[in-house]
Write a structure and sequence with these properties.
By secondary structure, the protein is an alpha+beta fold. It folds into 6 domains: 185 residues, Hypothetical protein af1432; 139 residues, Beta Polymerase, domain 2; 93 residues, Ubiquitin-like (UB roll), CATH 3.10.20.30; 74 residues, no CATH class; 58 residues, no CATH class; 75 residues, Alpha-Beta Plaits, CATH 3.30.70. Strands 1, 2, 3, 4, 5 and 6 form a 6-stranded mixed β-sheet that branches. The chain has a 5-stranded mixed β-sheet with strand order 12-16-14-15-13. Strands 18-19-17-20 form a 4-stranded antiparallel β-sheet, covered by helices on one side. The longest helix is centred in the first third of the chain and has 21 residues.
Amino acid sequence: MQEMNLNLKNKVYECFSFDENEKKIIEEALNCDLNWARVFKIVSLIVDMKLDKNSCIAFLVYQFYKVKSVEGDELAKRLSLEQQEMYNDFKTIKDINRLTKSEEIEDIKRMFIVMSRDLRIVIIKMFGIYYDIASLENPLTEEQKLFVKQVKDIHVPLSERLGLDKLKQNLYDNVIRLEHPNEYARLKKTIESEQEENSKQLELTKTKIQKILDEMHINGEILSRIKHISSIFNKLHNKNLTLNQIYDILAMRVIVNNIEECYAVLGRIHGIYKPMIGRVKDYIANPKPNGYQSLHTTIIVENQHPLEVQIRTVEMNREAEYGVYSHWLYKEKKSKQDAFDQKMTWFRQTIDNAKNMSNEDFIETLKSDLYEGLLLVQTPMGKVLEFPAGSTIIDFAYAIHSDVGNRCVGAKINGQLKPFTTTLHNGDIVEIITNPHSKGPSRDWLKFVKTASARSKIKAFFKNELKDENIKLGKSMFNQAMMDRGYNSNQLLSSKILEQIFKKYNLESLEELYASIGSGSLSAGQVLSRFIMIYNNENKQLPKLDNVVHLKRNKEGVLIDGDSGMMVRFARCCSPIEGDDIIGYISRGRGVTIHRTNCPNLDYLEKERLIDAQWQIKEDASFTANIKVIAIKSDNNIGRLTNLITGLKINIKGFDAKDIGENFLCTLVVEVKNKSELESAINSIRNMKNVTNVYRSER
């Protein structure tokens, strides 16, 4: 411990200039039982990344806090204001490999909020994640497997989005090492076996390129590297290549002073080495979506192997090394800070969107946004905007401004009129056509917008801009539903009942309730049923449900608004089964018909007759459901399918098969206990040979 303490202290004192107060704080922070190996590694990365002394001291005091708790807060009071703010941010985000799944999602949300304030905190957190995954060894526990998956799904693409390429590669190398240990070991052995030959070739090429720089009187720098195993692994699998088809395992980086020198050096290199056709890439004129710029060329060198040469300016290299953080690191002028702000737009939008999303929606949207390909699209004035692949004209309009999206009536892409649903492509120039008299967006837009930002702004329009109209409409719908059921406002709209209703639906006023009904967020029938249930409970009355006859506890196992004494039948149009989200429809003289909440026929029913419904678990209940199977024609496919179903101890109630071209379509009517059993059967069928598609159908 003493030796580690001394080594760490010497390292930070060598790299940063602390005043006497800060040195005393560091002495105290290091005077406890820290995880020395982890702390030393992270501090080393802080130094390598050229983060400042405030980052270092705030991190060390936070490590002290993790051991000493309250004493850490006392020590933090002696920090400068900036150091205290960083210390508090460290406390905000936790250690991901010690969290439950729901806590992990909350932590990622907090990480994005902290990122908008101070990117340094998140970078240091990523260093900690890198240390933690690098320390793991196979075989992994289930918790460790989940941690590795989280790193792969979130932190690898996030570090790429930040432009932290080196960190991304190190994280991903460890993911491959742990998830694919055999292939990782094979690739590592292959690379190491050729290390001596590769090193000699890199040195020879470096000498020749240095001679070019000397002849051109360019004061440049030449670096070399061997490609990361994770990058090789990706190319082998994603592009279905062999190792011999990967042409950039060896690479040379030439760093010069300006763009003119980049192109001049490229020409001279091609004068002494033959370039491979199709392997010259100009990322200076056409940067990658994350802002990466460089010239790439793959040349055939003396050992007849390919070698990639990257040529870039000092500034381009700095941004490739440090990503968006480089703009803070070098304290650039306002114009450069604007470029930084532009790069951070996606993160700020993610934070804003997270406020209105459930944890599940947030994490799925985040994964989608991180992994989707990126598009760079321009306005007619030349402003460049970034979008995930698959984004449409509507996404573009809302990215400019909410008002532009709400008033959008058309658009031109590259000068040609296009429909709203048109997807964008790299380099498109998009001009949005607006009309101040537009009635606003259509709800159909929600079906094809790609970005969470556009989706939330469209929903906000219907919630806010049409609030007065929704209040009037919702009040009318609710009053009509109340009259149809034989109740009046004096009975139901008491302060005591309203208090329970507001709590149930997270509302603050009757106007909000009416607005929610008018906008379609709540069903008048469902809300009214809740009012009636509370009213009847308080007055000890049975609910009025037109002429429905109340029978004994229903055998179907369905509760209607908490009551199980109603006549119940299941709608044949959607065949609900236990586990489906359901809703009831009150029919005069025929009891309550149960539909799935996504049944298309609900659109044609009287909304005021809809009523809350939920499942009551019954072990002996059974339901019928329909499964459609599309499979390639093959001997005895139908026999294997029926054998599979019966082998799962599921009864087949109906069967139909017909030819559709080169395939056959099979419809199975099965008897299952619940939705979980149905989904298990569908998954088993999906794994059958020759099956191309399988899904649950309405009929």
